[in-house]
Amino acid sequence: MRNFDTIRAVLFDMDGTLVESDAAVERAWEAWAVEYSVEPSAALAIAHGAPAPDTVAKLRADLDPADVAAAAARQLELQYDDLADVTATPGAHRLIGVLDRLDLPWAVVTSADGRLARARLAAAGITPPLLLTVEDVTRGKPDPEGYLLAADRLGVDPADCLVVEDSEPGLAAGRAAGATTASLRGLDADLILTDLGRLARLLRRHHDPSGWWQDAAGYQVYLPSFADSDGDGWGDLPGVAAHLDHIAALGVDMLWLTPFFASPMRDHGYDVSDYLAVDPSFGGEQALDDLIAAAHRRGLRVIGDLVVNHTSDRHRWFREAAASRESRYRDHYIWRDPAPGGGPPNNWLSHFGGPAWTYSEATGQYHLHLFKAEQPDLNWRNPAVAEAIDAVIEHWLDRGLDGFRIDTAAYLVKHPDLPSNPLLPPGERYLSGTVAADWALQDHRYDIHQPDVHAVHERWRRVADRHGALLVGEIYETDPAALTAYLAADRLHSAFWFGLLTGEFDPAATPAELLAAAQTSPGLSWAQGNHDCRRAATRFGARRSLALHAMTAFLPGLTWIYQGEELGLEDGVVPPERAADPLATAHPESSRDSARTPMPWDAGPGLGFTTGEPWLPLGGRTEADTVASQEEDPNSPLRTMRRLMRVRHAVLDDLPKGLDDWQVDDGVAAFRRGSVQVFANLGATAVDGVAPAGPVVFDSDDHRVTPETASSGPIRLAPGQAVVAFTA
Questions:
Q1: 3-class DSSP state for residue 34?
Q2: pLDDT digits (tens, 9 = 90+) for 509-563
Q3: Does residue 1 have a pLDDT over 60?
Q4: How many CB atoms lie within 10 A of CB 605?
Q5: Which of 313, 474, 581, 593 is catalytic?
Q6: In 3-state terms, the chain is what percent helix, strand and coil (to 5)?
Q7: pTM surpassing 0.70?
Q8: In which element (H, E) is residue 73 found?
């Protein structure tokens, strides 16, 4: 479900949807079952979501109608007498608040009788504007009568209603009424929710005039290593689809898929041979459509990876261009004659080592490639290239993608004269850590970051805005002020800040740089890791990495989780003889393979990633690293990340665009943003006397601290510990 334009009202079931009453219901049915000589498990198996008389009649078919009515009345008496632990479900009050702010009418339609419904709703602190109970209908669910009646009383077409249910009979009633359906408990529906807070966020995001991506959270999927569905050892799109519930449970808003286009895979998809085709190794065309549909049903947006600085040399454009100087595609790429004395036209270098030029005997010229020779750079000064890529973007947005992460977004346009780059002063290095050593010694003044690149981004923005799509750029830049030039109103929506992606952690400088960067723009994307750099838990330490996530989760801008960061994974171990990264061939010390080892799902063969031989080694992971193991531990990195993101969702929509204040003292970074205060000990020693201005609702070291069970008072922050407080 991609938009909410047609939703004019929301209709809720009560028990299990708005109200947590399962324990009370089960106690009542168990007590009733004992009184009426019924196996309790049989009663519990069919009682949820159905009127009491219907359930009694099924359980005691021997009773006549009068006795059924009496037995049902007794069951209800047991429920009336037990409201001890009836509460609102997670996110219910937040969702009701959002509905009221958006002026969306809502109602409760329940199979309970009026007395019980009003008592339970009151116990949960909920007063619906319209309540329909079993007394208002002649037939209970799955008959649609209740939802049709609610829509009529609200003056809304049933087709414009969203029915939110937690039972199969209720969903059947919603579907029969012609409404859009949303489900809890993982049931099949048009929209599958983890909790009602998720729906609140989706509704707010949809109606936000500044765009659904404002303060969004994303999850990066490195396709080859996420999940393999067919046992060939290579991750694929059906594998991602099978684990969407894991991603949704993290509380993110979107997933970024690394390239799925047709490719010879010399750079694992970052060498595209056909922009309009899905590579069969990832599952093919239908697999992508199925994944997008399944993600949208969970309220997750999907963005692709736009790789258009270069293509593969197998791309039809380049094959024709390389065959003849007269080819109509010759000017799609950058060709130059040899230097006057022979050799490459200038001193430009490849990211992967050696000259950025490869000579063609067939045509007597060199082609430019800032990456592998098999990845020729496109000529973005040729209007035909710009028009072709516009069509590619339109194709995938029409297909259902919600935007793009743009690979090497600042590299596209080169200086028109192609002059040689000067060397950097001794002791200085280019910022990226995942390049060949010689590349890092040049001042890349003419091959990247040319001002004309903004015109390309402006073209794309016009296309994206027509689709309500996001553009987030990979721009190798640590100066946040320099990044803002790429985020003008008609350019990219966001760009990754590389201050946490490159190099090691500096406790004296990194936190201050991060918080200063947050002051420059609300459009920056915060990420600690990706498929191109060593894992954050290795560079920073697992506890410090989690503390940084607690900080970036509440900074203005977009926050990102790279697959495995939610598990606290450190670098995987890949023996040199198993290296797969093209950069590792020439520069083993710069290999990116350690960040790309397969995702560990469970303790079985292949750690749940594959039933075959994985394309990269499993990296030395253990059972404790797996999702299945961490699910069982409330203090695991996985469960802690989920708690963090739940707190984030509870307040983020109401926060200002900037920070109110921030400071770094004795290794503790602290900032306030509206009603939220964050403290993170990024140093090496414990700090006493940290005094939040309000109740603490998240503590990275204590799973018992939640918005419902907040703590108060001064705190002793251990190294790597972070807390979040609500101040209003």
A1: helix
A2: 999 999 999 999 999 999 999 999 999 999 999 999 999 999 999 999 999 999 9
A3: no
A4: 10
A5: 474
A6: 35, 15, 45
A7: yes
A8: helix 65-80
Residue 327's SS3 state is coil
Q: What is the DSSP letter of 355?
A: B
Cα separation of 624 and 51, whole Å? Answer: 45
DSSP, residue by residue, 289-311: HHHHHHHHHTT-EEEEEE--SB-
CB atoms within 10 A of CB 285: 12
CA 696 to chain centre: 26
Q: Which residues of 461-490 are buried (b: 16+ CB within 10 A; e: fewer)?
A: bebbeeebbbbbbbbbbbebeebebbbeee
Which residues, including other chains, have CB under 8 Å from residue 512's CB and lie 6 or more apart?
664, 669
Q: Quick check: 483 and 477 in contact, CB under 8 A?
A: yes
Q: Is the pLDDT of residue 50 over 80?
A: no
Which residues are bridge partners to 711 per DSSP?
A: 696
Q: What angle do CA 256, 527, 227 make, to 5 degrees?
A: 40
The secondary structure of 593-652 as a DSSP string is GGG-SPP--SSSGGGGT-SS--SS--TT--GGGSHHHHHT-TTSHHHHHHHHHHHHHHHG
Average pLDDT in the 468-485 region?
A: 93
Hunting for tokens 């990264």 — which residue is that?
581
Per-residue pLDDT of 605-652, as tens digits, reads: 899 999 999 999 999 999 999 999 999 999 999 999 999 999 999 888
- Residue count (the chain): 728
What residue type is assigned to position 43 of the chain? A
Q: Which amino acid is at 168?
A: E
Told to judge if 474 belongs to the known catalytic residues of this protein, a careful annotator would answer: yes
**Candidate from 49-63, 102-116, 175-189 with smallest mean pLDDT:** 49-63
Q: Report cis status (omega within 30 of 0) of the bond before 65.
A: no
DSSP state of 422: P
pLDDT tens digits, one per residue of 403-414 = 999 999 999 999
Could you say which DSSP state residue 35 is in? H
Span 53-101, pLDDT tens digits: 888 899 899 999 998 889 888 888 887 877 878 899 999 999 999 999 9
List phi, psi (to 5°) of 677: -125, 130
Strand 676-681 versus strand 668-673 pairing type: antiparallel
pLDDT for 2 equals 56
* 66/72 Cα distance (integer angstroms): 10
Which of the following is catalytic: 271, 407, 477, 532? 407
The SS3 call for residue 280 is helix
Per-residue confidence (pLDDT) for residue 229, from 0 to 100: 98
Share of the chain above pLDDT 90, in %: 80
On average, the pLDDT of the chain sits at 94
pLDDT band at 431 (very low <50, low <70, confident <90, very high): low
Q: What is the DSSP letter of 349?
A: B
How far apart (Å, rounded) are the C-alpha atoms in residues 197 and 628?
A: 25
Measuring CA to CA, which residue among 174, 124, 115 is closest to residue 144? 174
